[in-house]
Amino acid sequence: MIRMNKSIIMAIAWKDLKATFSSKKVWVPMVIIAVLICTVLPSVFAVLGLHTNMLAGEAQDIEKPIQAFIEKFPDEEMGEKLASLPDLGTKFVYFFMSFMMIPFFLIVVIINSLVTASNSFVGEKERKTLETLLFAPISITDLFIGKVLASLIPALGITIAVYLLDLIVINIIAYPYFGELLFVKSVWLLLIFWSLQHSFYLRSS
C-alpha cells in the first residue's frame, strides 16, 4: 500500500498555487479564456439567436429535421419545451444553452489545468528548484499529487466562477424568452458535482 504524506502534498500544492496567482501572465489568460469561451461567445450566440432572424433563410431547409429530432428527443419534458418554442432560433438557443455548453466548460477545465501544470514545472526550472525538489526526501507519489492539486484547483475555481457568472448573464438575456432559468437543470448540477467530487477525491487521497 502506498503511503502518502498529506502535509507534504498540501505544502507542494500551496507553493505552486502561490506561484500561479503571483504571476499575472498565468492566471489572467486563464480567466480571459474561460470568460470568452463560456460567457462571451454564448451570450453573443443567445443575442443573435433570440433578437435576430439569422436562421430565417435556412428555416425551410432544416425545419423538418429539427422537428423530427424534437419528436424523438429522449427527454420528454425537454422535447415538449422545445416543441412549444415559437421559432427555430429560439429552439437552437434553448438546446445549445441546455446541452451544448457542457463541453465548453470541460474544455476550459482541461486547458487551464494544462496551463497551470506546465507553468508548475517550468517555474521550478526557471527558479532552479526542480533538481532540489526531485532530490528532496519526498515520494514521487506525494510530488505528483501535490502538482495535480495545484493544477486542478485553479482550473476548477475559475470554471465554477464562470458558471456562476453565466447564471446571471445568460439568464438576463434568455429568461424573458423561456420563462425559466438556464444552467440549473440536473445535468448542470451533476457536472458541477462531478468536478467537485474529483477535486475533493484528489485532495483527500
Brief overview:
The protein is mostly helical.
Topology, pairings included?
Layout lengths: L5 H16 L2 H28 L7 H13 L4 H9 L3 H13 L1 H25 L3 H5 L5 H39 L7 H19 L1
Keywords: Membrane, Transmembrane, Transmembrane helix
GO cellular component, one term: plasma membrane
Protein name: ABC transporter permease
Architecture overview:
This is ABC transporter permease. Keywords: Membrane, Transmembrane, Transmembrane helix. By secondary structure, the protein is mainly alpha-helical. It has one domain (27-50, 69-204). The chain contains nine helices and no strands. The protein has helices spanning 6-21, 24-51, 59-71, 76-84, 88-100, 102-126, 130-134, 140-178, 186-204.
